[in-house]
Write the structure tokens for this entry.
Amino acid sequence: MFKDDIFSVGLFFVFLCSSAESCVQTDVQAQVPQRLQRGHVISKVNLGNCGTRHLDLTCSDPDFAVKPDGTILTSQLTTIPDDGRSFSVLAKSETGQTWRVNVALFPADQVFQKSSNDALKRFKRRWRPPPFNVIENDKGPFPKNVEYVASDSSVDHIVYYTVEGMGIDSEPVGIFRLYGDSGLLQILQAVDREQYSRFDFVAHAFDKFSNVETDQPLPITVYVQDVNDNAPEFSSLLIFVTEEHSKQGTYVGIVNATDKDEPNTLHTKIKYSLLNCTDLFTIDPYSGVLRTSNDRLDRETQDRYYVQMEIRDMNGAPDGLSRTGVAVVSLTDINDNPPTFRQTVYKAKVLENQSNVQVLRIPVDDLDLKGTPNWKAEYDITKGNESGNFWITTDPTTNEGLLYVVRPLDREKQEKLNLEVRARNQVPLTRTTATWQTVPVELSVEDVDEGPEFSVPILQLRVKENLPNGTHIGVYTAIDPETKSSTGIKYYKIPQSDRGSWISVVENTGELKTANIIDRESPLVINDTYNITVKAVDQSQKSGTGTVMILIEDVNDNSPFIKPSKRVACTSNGKRGSVLIKAEDYDKPPYAIPFSFELGSEFAGKWKLTNATATTVMLEPAEDMPNGMYQVPLIIKDLQGEGDKQMVSIRVCDCQSNGECPDSGVSARLGGWAILAMLLSLLLLLLLCLLLLFVCTTKGEKLQMIDDDGSGGMLLKSNTEAPGEEVKEAPLLIAPGSKVDGGSFTKGGGGGTIDYRTIGSYGGQNVMGQQSVLGGSQGMYGTGQFNTFQKYSDMATVETWRTNELYLDNKLYHFGEEDDGRFAADVLKPYGYEGAGSPAGSVGCCSILSDREPVDFLDSLGPKFRTLADVCTSRAVKGGQ
């Protein structure tokens, strides 16, 4: 049984389902001592779901009271009956809503009043006491009793208790201690709730004699009750910006503050208030929203305000903790002040005939923020500048108005001018009744000696194009403003102005004539207009200039033409394609569009024109055509019937999916070097064809060699001084009807044979050489009576074949028909020497040469026979191999 002087009891809350409209719990149950002293805390109504709403709490039982934060405590000494006690707490909001909380109290002493029969029963829920409470920052004295820990097993056992956990043997260590024999829990030092809001540890009950645990471990929770020991703090910078002259109630910003004390209690219920500038600003006491209270915030008077404010907890109660701060409210500028002139009138002087010179600087003042569009001034001349002689702009640094003369003034026409200048800002005025200001400007024109003046500054002349040279088109004259006469004035054209040299000016009269053909379609003409500048010079060499604007009238001097484009008629799925033809004409209406399109008569049935417009027509095949390029004649005429026949190139093909012909992409990719290579290849091919034609049509020439003894011989004519033509490894084509048998050549039917090595004759006799007909490097043909040498490698294949057949047939026929004496022409004969004799003897018969006999004697031959010796030597050497 608990001691009577220990009255602090932990709270045990049972939460039931709350209605959707209620923000408080509907039932509170707690176990308390049977005797309660005045001020004993019973429990607490949870107001956490009510947010910032203010509730009035009242208790139906006068023995109990309830604080604004929901804490229930006794108002006087009270006793709880054995069967418990109940009452209710009524909560009422500012809007009149009410909620009822039912409170039920049960005496804790009844837990230990058990009969002997009940002592054997275990009620585990009675082992857990309600949560314990301690007050933060308690001033002591310490140690201080908190509560007793007791187990039902103490009825049957002599027990002792131990505890472990937070505040006992784990951080923070040494906050609590437990007396094992009595179960008394004590707190040993003050605790800061903002550091530790609760402590959770576990108690155990052991039999004192056997040290056996007699009950299940008891989780114990000790809550640290909050006290208002922390003043609220500003949690954001107190810097705000708003426009000047903002309307009343304009949102400026929100002041954020926090409190480290327990949330949702009066300790953290902060109230906001202003300590100064209450005539300009207001602050919501609960949300901290700062607003303007009127529209008198003027940046030009004060651009920054320092607003002192206070935040206090306990909902602003006098005993609440508070903190003060200073908020800085800066004002942004609006254009509420127009530029103002420093003088009521401005005066200046200007010389006549001057242009592009500054006349006057006009200063202004503006109270708005410098450098902003609200301050920057713009000027315009509202009166007196109807002729456009003046121009005004702004000095970007000083904001002054700069007045210029852009066209010369004439003192003889006007000595004084009165202008009116207006100044305004780049943006409109706002939140003000002021308007833009104007100021008068008086200008005096001073006299100077002037040059001639043309009758009009700009002379307009209408001229048709293509006029003959020397055609009169007009007269442009000037007068002297002093004498009012044109006497003695001469006229000149400024060459740079007449870029096409189209106009000439008669010096004494100012007459204008055409000097060249005027072309309206020339790039020198802009909007059918061509300008020149004429200069007039008087006798005092004073000059003046004027402009001649020539308005060129069009004539029908251009025919329509077709714009070049890629024209492909795509055939797809048997459907014929079409091509859009577009025409243009450099002339303008009525000498241009609409155009008429006609096909040439020879193509009327093959092609057709459809869907003609003013400038275009569709050209498509009238019948199926094979793929390829076509030239289609098309006659295009303008509105006046002028036009010519033009050829249109159209390609008909089966287009790919991209709308192009299959090889169009390849052709498009050929570069300049590729085209050049193709041209060179075609040129080389042409030259090769010409060379082959020349070789095939050239006949071998025959020269007869006359020997001293009359035997004679045939010698090839050569125009080279080299050893002769190179031997080429090309087979000699065998004539049809002939065959090669061993080393002899046999003609069918003749019975005669010829050694295929016999290729020529020397001195009228055949010379034998080991030159293979099939594998030889050079073919030569002979008959026995005369020989004709010709390289078959230089002839076309067909011609070589025919020539071989002809020569072989003649040779075989000769060998078959002549008698045995025919061989006498093939024996060695003496050679007729020319000049000094050859020490080596005759070289006419190669048959007497053998592999064993030296041929060095050929080196001693004269220069005329060295070539022939080299040929015979090479043939002899080859024959022996």
In short: The first strand starts at residue 27 and ends at 32. The chain has a mean pLDDT of 77. The domain at 233-332 is CATH 2.60.40.60 (Immunoglobulin-like). DSSP finds five helices and 60 strands in the chain.
